[in-house]
Design goal:
Belongs to the peptidase M1 family. Helix content is 41%, strand content 21%. The chain is of the alpha+beta class. Helix 1 links the parallel strand 17 and strand 18. The chain binds phenylalanine and zinc ion.
C-alpha cells in the first residue's frame, strides 16, 4: 500500500479563502446533479500565487468554469488542481457541475440513501464525495443550498428562505467548514416544539423521523430543550439560528453528527419509548442529544484548524456532555460510569499498538482517529485543567475562549493560551498530556511518624508506539484522609504533582490516617499502591468520596477475582460481607449499589492480570467470574427477595435517574437470584415486564444461566418489526453465549433473515457482540478470531469505516499466550493480504500487526 501519512508538522494555511458557496442539488437516486458556485479569494496569509487544490472523490465532472469562462480541467483520483499562475490575483468564482450516485453509496459517507431517504455525512472528509471543494476545516464559508426533489421534506443547514413545489432553498449565515454541511430529503414527519432563548428569541425545534416514529421522540425533544437551557445557564451560550433540526436515520456509521442547524442522528440515539428502550438507551439519548447540541459552540462556532486538533472540539464537547448528564442525574454514578468506560476503552487502547496522543501528529486515514483517546481522554484533560485552575478560572477561560476565537478554526495552542492568559499559569508541562500517549502509572507509598503523615508518589510514563521515552506530567491528585474511626480528617485537597517523584506531608495527626487517593478519579492514571483488603473494606464503608468508595469495592473485587484466576481460591468472607453491607444499605443510592454489585468485566480482568505480569487465560477468567457470582448469590440469597420486591416501581414508568437506579439494583438482584432459583423469578419478571429495561434485563438473567430459549422466541415474535429492539435480540444471545458456543451462535445469527449486515447497527449488534464476549471471542479454538476477520473482510469493500472500527477487537493481542497471539497475527495477515483493502482497515490492521 502506498498511502503516505499526513503530518501535523506539514500544515500550511489554505491557498484561498471562500467568501460564499451556492449549491444546487437535483436529487435522483442513481444520478444526482450537484451544481456549485464557490467564490474564492486569495488568502493574504499565503504569498507566491499558490495552486488551488480542490478535493473531489468519485465525482463525474460534467463542466467547470472560472468567472463564467469554461475550464478544461482533468480531475485526478482525489481532486483537481487549478494552477496558481492561471488564477486571478483577486476574488473569482469557480463553478462546476458534477454527477454522483447516492444509491450506490454503501460507505455512508457523502450523500447516500437510507430507506428511501437522502442524507449526508461529511465529517471528516465526506464533502469531497459531493462536489469539488477545499474540504478542510480551516476554510469556512456561508452556504446557500437549493434542493430539487419531489420528496416532501427538503432540509439543509441554517434557515429555510424559500420553497415551492419540488424545491426548497436554505441559507446558513454562519461561516462553516464543509464537514458541517448537511442535506436531508425524504418522506419525514416532525415532532416539533419551541424554545425561547435567554435573550427572548424563539427557535423552532423539529425532530424528523419516518412516519410512525413520531411518538418516539418525546424524550429526545425533552433532552434537547434541557440541553439548550443548560448551555445558557452554565456556559452562557445561546443558540444562534431560527430553527434547529434533528433527523433520525437508520443507516449511520457513528452515533450522531453536529451539522450546523441540522444534526443527523443514528435513530438509536433518538427513538425511545419505555417499552422499546432501556434505561441505558434513555441515558445515551440524553447524552448524545446534548453532545451534538453543545457542538454548536464547541465545534461549529469555534472549529478545528485541521484534523489533528480533533480533540479541541471532541474532548471539550464530551466534557460538557458529561457535566450536563451529571447535573441531570447522579454526579457520583455518572463519574463511576465514565471511568468504567474510560478504562474499558481508552486505557485498553493506550496499552496496545493503537496507542496515540490525544492530539496525534500523523495519520493515514483520519476516520481511524475518532477514538476513545481523542474523545474520552480528551475530556479527562479538560477535567484536569479545570481541577488545576479551579472552577472560577475555568469559567473565565471559557468566556475568553468564546470571545477570542468565535468564528475561527483554532488549535490546541490557542486553547491552552486562553487558559494561560486567563490564569497567568504556564501550561507548557500540561501540554504534554496532548502530545504524549500512554497511561501514566502512579505509585504511592506512605509513612507516619510523630503526627506527620507523608504520601510519596512516583510517576512512570510507559513507552507507546513511536514514543519510547516520556517526560513527567502534571498530575492533579485529589486526596482526603480518614481517621481510623472513619471520620474525615482532611477533606478533599488537590495535590499537584509535577516531578517524577514527589512527597506531600500532612501535620498534626493523632493517629495514622487511611488515605483516599485520586478522589473523583482526578487524573487518568493507574494508581498502584499496596493496599490490604481490610483497608479497602474500610474505605468502601467510610469514604466520603463516592467515586473512591466505589473504587475501593471494585479493587477488592478485582483482588479477589485475580486470586481466584491465578490460584483457584474461593472468594473470602471479607469481600462478601463488605459487598452485602453495601447491597442492603438504604442510605445509599440504589444506582450506586447496583454499580457496586457489578462484578469486574472479563476484558478488564485480562488487562489487569496482564499488567501484573500474568498471561491471562480467558477461559479461567470466565470460570472464576462465574464462581464469584455464584458465591455472591449464595451469600446474598436471604436479602435478594426483599430487595426485588421493595424496589418494584409502583407508578407509571419514569425514565429518570432515580427510577432507573432502582431498576438497575432490582435487576442486579434478579441476576443473582436466578443463579439460585433456576430462573423462576426471572421468567416471571420477563412475563410481567412493562418496559424494555426489565424485559431485556430478565431475559439476560435467563440467558446467563443457559435458559431463556422460549423467551427469546416470544421476544422475537413480539419485536420482529422493530429494528432497534431486534438489534438487542441479536446482541443478547451472543453476549450471553457460553464461551464454546459463541462462534456458533454468531454463525447461526448471521444466517438469520433479519441479519442485514449492511446496516451498521445490525452488524455491530452481531459482530460487535462477538468481540464483546471475551471468553467466546478468545476461545482457544480461534473460531472467534476467524469469524471476525471473515466479516471484516466482507464488510470492508462496502463500508470501510465500520470495518476499521470493529477491527480494534484485535488490539489486545499482546496480552495473551503464544497460541492466541499467533492466531490473531494470522488473521491480521489474512486481512492485510486482501486485494483492494481499504485505507481505513489497512491502516488499522497494519498498526496492529506491528
Ligand atoms: N462529530 C461526531 C460527534 O462527535 C462524530 C462523528 C464523526 C460522526 C465522524 C460521523 C462521522 O458528535
Ligand atoms: Zn462530538
Amino acid at each position: 500500500m502506498t498511502d503516505t501519512p499526513i503530518r501535523l508538522a506539514d500544515y500550511l494555511p489554505p491557498s484561498h479563502l471562500v467568501d460564499g458557496v451556492s449549491l444546487t442539488f437535483r436529487l435522483d437516486p442513481g444520478c444526482t446533479r450537484v451544481l456549485s458556485e464557490i467564490r474564492f479569494r486569495p488568502n493574504p496569509a499565503r504569498t507566491g500565487r499558490p495552486d488551488l487544490r480542490l478535493d473531489g472523490e468519485g465525482l463525474a465532472l460534467v463542466s467547470a468554469a472560472l468567472d463564467g469562462a469554461p475550464l478544461a480541467v482533468q480531475p485526478d483520483a482525489t481532486g483537481l488542481t487549478l494552477p496558481g499562475a492561471s488564477l486571478p490575483d483577486a476574488p473569482f468564482a469557480f463553478t462546476a457541475e458534477v454527477e454522483i450516485d447516492p444509491a450506490a453509496n454503501t460507505a455512508l459517507e457523502g450523500l447516500y440513501m437510507s430507506n428511501g431517504m437522502y442524507c449526508t455525512q461529511c465529517e471528516a472528509e465526506g464533502f469531497r464525495k459531493i462536489t469539488f471543494y477545499p474540504d478542510r476545516p480551516d476554510v469556512m464559508a456561508p452556504f446557500r443550498v437549493r434542493i430539487e426533489s419531489d420528496l416532501p421534506v427538503l432540509l439543509s443547514n441554517g434557515n429555510e428562505v424559500a420553497s415551492g413545489p419540488g424545491w426548497a432553498e436554505w441559507h446558513d449565515p454562519w461561516p462553516k467548514p464543509s464537514y458541517l454541511f448537511a442535506l436531508v430529503a425524504g418522506d419525514l414527519v416532525a415532532h416539533s416544539a419551541g424554545f425561547t432563548t435567554a435573550s427572548g428569541r424563539t427557535v423552532a425545534l423539529n425532530i424528523w423521523v419516518r412516519p410512525g416514529d413520531e411518538a418516539r421522540c418525546a424524550y429526545a425533544m425533552d433532552s434537547l430543550i434541557r440541553s439548550m437551557k443548560w448551555d445558557e445557564e452554565v456556559y452562557g451560550r445561546e443558540y444562534d439560528l431560527d430553527t434547529f433540526n434533528i433527523v433520525a436515520v437508520d443507516d449511520f456509521n457513528m452515533g450522531a453528527m453536529e451539522n450546523k442547524g441540522l444534526n443527523i442522528f443514528n435513530s438509536k440515539y433518538v427513538l425511545a419509548l419505555p417499552e422499546t428502550a432501556t434505561d441505558d438507551d434513555f441515558a445515551r439519548i440524553e447524552a448524545v442529544i446534548a453532545h451534538e447540541y453543545f457542538h454548536n459552540w464547541t465545534g461549529n462556532r469555534i472549529t478545528c484548524r485541521d484534523w489533528f486538533q480533533l480533540c479541541l472540539k471532541e474532548g471539550l464537547t464530551v466534557f460538557r456532555d458529561q457535566q450536563f448528564s451529571s447535573d441531570m442525574r447522579s454526579a457520583a454514578v455518572k463519574r463511576i460510569e465514565d471511568v468504567l468506560t474510560l478504562r474499558a476503552r481508552q486505557f485498553r487502547e493506550d496499552d496496545g499498538p493503537l496507542a496515540h496522543p490525544v492530539r496525534p501528529e500523523e495519520y493515514i486515514e483520519i476516520n481511524n482517529f475518532y477514538t476513545a483517546t481523542v474523545y474520552e481522554k480528551g475530556a479527562e484533560l479538560i477535567g484536569m485543567l479545570k481541577r488545576l485552575v479551579g472552577d472560577e478560572a475555568y469559567a473565565r477561560a471559557l468566556d475568553l475562549y468564546f470571545e477570542r476565537h468565535d468564528g475561527q478554526a483554532a488549535t490546541i495552542e490557542d486553547w491552552l493560551t486562553v487558559f494561560e492568559d486567563a490564569t497567568g499559569r504556564d501550561l507548557a508541562q500540561f501540554k504534554l498530556w496532548y502530545s504524549e500517549a500512554g497511561t501514566p502509572r502512579l505509585k504511592v507509598s506512605d509513612r507516619f511518624e510523630d503526627g506527620r503523615y507523608t504520601l510519596e508518589f512516583e510517576q512512570v510514563n510507559p513507552p507507546t508506539p513511536g514514543q519510547p521515552v516520556k517526560q513527567p506530567k502534571v498530575i492533579p491528585v485529589a486526596v482526603g484522609l480518614l481517621n481510623p474511626n472513619g471520620d474525615e480528617v482532611l477533606p478533599t485537597t488537590v495535590l499537584e504533582m509535577t516531578e517524577p517523584r514527589q512527597s506531600f506531608t500532612f501535620e498534626g495527626l493523632g493517629a495514622r490516617p487511611v488515605p483516599s487517593i485520586l478522589r473523583g478519579f482526578s487524573a487518568p492514571v493507574v494508581l498502584e499502591r499496596e493496599t490490604s483488603p481490610e483497608e479497602r473494606a474500610f474505605l468502601l464503608a467510610h469514604d466520603t468520596d463516592p467515586f473512591n468508595k466505589w473504587e475501593a469495592g471494585r479493587a477488592l473485587a478485582k483482588d479477589v477475582l485475580a486470586r481466584m484466576v491465578t490460584g483457584g481460591a474461593q472468594p473470602g468472607p471479607d469481600w462478601l460481607e463488605a459487598l452485602a453491607r453495601v447491597a442492603v444499605d438504604e442510605t445509599l443510592d440504589p444506582a450506586f449499589r447496583a454499580l457496586a454489585l457489578r462484578l469486574p468485566g472479563e476484558d478488564d480482568m485480562a488487562q489487569t492480570l496482564h499488567a501484573a505480569g500474568h498471561v491471562p487465560d480467558p477461559a479461567r477468567i470466565n470460570a472464576a467470574r462465574e464462581r464469584m457470582a455464584g458465591a455472591l448469590a449464595e451469600r446474598l440469597e436471604p436479602e435478594l427477595g426483599a430487595l426485588i420486591e421493595t424496589l418494584a416501581e409502583p407508578g407509571p414508568f419514569s425514565p429518570e435517574a432515580r427510577a432507573a437506579g432502582r431498576r438497575a439494583l432490582r435487576l442486579a438482584a434478579l441476576g443473582l437470584v436466578t443463579r439460585r432459583d433456576g430462573g423462576a423469578r426471572a421468567e416471571a419478571a420477563f412475563r410481567a415486564a412493562n418496559n424494555m429495561t426489565e424485559e431485556v434485563g430478565a431475559l439476560a438473567c435467563l440467558l446467563e444461566i443457559g435458559r431463556g430459549q422460549e423467551e427469546l422466541g416470544l421476544f422475537e415474535t413480539r419485536w420482529a418489526g422493530d429494528r432497534l429492539v431486534m438489534d438487542k435480540w441479536f446482541a443478547l444471545q451472543i453476549l450471553h453465549a457460553a464461551p464454546e458456543e459463541t462462534a456458533a451462535t454468531v454463525e447461526r445469527l448471521t444466517a438469520h433473515p433479519a441479519f442485514d449486515w449492511k446496516n451498521p447497527n445490525r452488524f455491530r449488534s452481531v459482530v460487535g457482540a462477538l468481540s464483546a464476549n471475551h471468553a467466546g471471542f478468545h476461545h482457544a479454538s480461534g473460531a472467534g478470531y476467524r469469524l471476525l476477520a471473515d466479516w471484516l473482510i466482507r464488510l470492508d469493500p462496502l463500508n470501510p469505516q465500520t470495518a476499521a472500527r470493529m477491527s480494534t477487537a484485535f488490539e489486545t493481542r499482546a496480552r495473551y499466550d503464544a497460541d492466541r497471539q499467533g492466531m490473531i497475527l494470522a488473521e491480521l495477515d489474512r486481512i492485510l493480504a486482501t486485494p483492494g483493502l481499504s485505507r481505513d482497515l489497512g491502516e488499522m490492521a497494519g498498526r496492529m500487526r506491528h
